[in-house]
Amino acid sequence: MIDDINDHSPRFVQSVYAATMSESLQRGASVISVSATDRDIGSNAKLVYTLREQDREHFYISSVEATNTGVLKVFKVNVCGMAFTDLYPIYVCG
Ligand SMILES: [Ca+2]
């Protein structure tokens, strides 16, 4: 049995993700899907997405095991004008 060493870090497919949100988005509504790749194999390539603590007030992110993607969802409604400095730079209400 050949084992894989977890020696690669995940990289986001896009360096910037931006989304336009409607004011009518309800809690639990999906905002955007994000995707990263990891060059390891098997469980070493499985990704779990998290948000920084200050971003969790308004959003949460679900990790989708089947596709290895993360889906950003609304935690608190009326999140118009939210700006992220890290992974999700700008949200504009449409
Ligand atoms: Ca890895």
Brief write-up:
This protein is mostly beta strands and 94 residues long.
Q: What's the CATH architecture?
A: Sandwich
Tell me the CATH topology. Answer: Immunoglobulin-like
* CATH superfamily placement: Cadherins
- Give the SSE string: EEEEEE
Bound molecules: calcium ion
Share of helical residues: under 10%
Query: Termini, distance in Å?
Result: 53 Å
What is the radius of gyration computed over CA atoms, rounded to a whole number of angstroms?
15 Å
Strand order of the largest sheet: 1-3-5-4
Task: Please explain how this structure is put together.
By secondary structure, the chain is mostly beta strands. 0% of the residues lie in helices and 30% in strands. The strands form two sheets. It has a four-stranded antiparallel beta sheet with strand order 1-3-5-4, with no helix packed on it. It starts with 10 loop residues before the first strand and ends with a strand. Residues 88-94 have low confidence and may be disordered. The structure holds calcium ion. Residues 6, 8, 38, 40, 44-45 line the site of calcium ion.
Features:
binds calcium ion, 6 strands, two-stranded parallel sheet, Immunoglobulin-like, mainly beta, 94 residues
Topology:
Blueprint: E1 11-12, E2 19-21, E3 30-37, E4 59-64, E5 69-74, E6 91-93
This protein binds calcium ion.
